[in-house]
Design goal:
The protein has 211 residues and is of the alpha+beta class. It contains 2 helices and 9 strands; from the N terminus they run αβαββββββββ. It has one domain: Coagulation Factor XIII, Chain A, domain 1.
Length: 211
């Protein structure tokens, strides 16, 4: 009886250890992606872009360390939030990513769809400099590190669908917008890269891009 009991307890211990190991594996529940201007991650999820790897199944999961630009993901890995499984997002693909047509200096509605509404510090939006290197993965040196739009939340929880009205900076040609959603009660933030093409007229706003 004693031997049987010892074996039973050992089996329970092994089972508990296996369960702990299984549940300690990070699970990608996902949290949010931009829909205007539509992000690379969402393009992959929509299957408008191929050879995307894992991000096509979880466009909401580009979560990395917060504190950008002083901290956060390393240069060259900003679009993937520093996550190797999403490295396809960092590849410029020779300018083949679809670009949202926008107008220099125009009003625009920047939009997110959130699958988990975290307590939020703020949402910030950055854009590449005129003359940035379009062939290299996105780096801090390619960006204007002063956000052109900041939407503070002061720890509040946003709705599932978020819209921030703001004015686009003055640019011409192809650029990238980096949107950063900083979480208030964790050490992380979410990073979304969107390709845009600035035209010279005020013909389009973000309300034209509901995905």
């Amino acid at each position: 009886m004693l031997r049987t009991r010892k074996l039973t307890l050992a089996g329970v211990a092994v089972g508990a250890l296996a369960l702990t190991a299984a549940t300690s594996i990070p699970l990608a529940y996902g949290h949010g992606y931009t829909t205007a201007p539509i992000s690379r991650a969402k393009h992959c999820a929509n299957k408008t872009v191929s050879n995307c790897g894992q991000i096509q199944w979880e466009p909401q999961s580009t979560e990395g360390p917060k504190g950008f630009p002083g901290a956060g993901p390393a240069d060259g890995k900003l679009c993937s939030a520093g996550l190797g499984q999403f490295n396809e997002l960092n590849d410029q693909r020779g300018g083949a990513w679809p670009a949202t047509q926008v107008s220099s200096g125009a009003n625009f509605s920047f939009k997110w769809h959130l699958t988990a509404m975290h307590a939020t510090t703020d949402f910030k939006y950055y854009v590449t400099k005129q003359g940035w290197n379009q062939t290299a993965p996105l780096t801090r040196s390619a960006l204007d590190l002063t956000p052109f739009l900041t939407f503070p939340m002061n720890g509040q929880r946003p709705a599932a669908d978020v819209s921030h009205a703001g004015r686009l900076p003055n640019r011409t040609g192809r650029h990238m917008i980096l949107a950063v959603w900083t979480i208030a009660d964790t050490a992380n933030a979410f990073y979304q890269c969107s390709d845009v093409n600035f035209g010279s007229s005020l013909s389009k706003t973000g309300t034209d891009f509901d995905f």
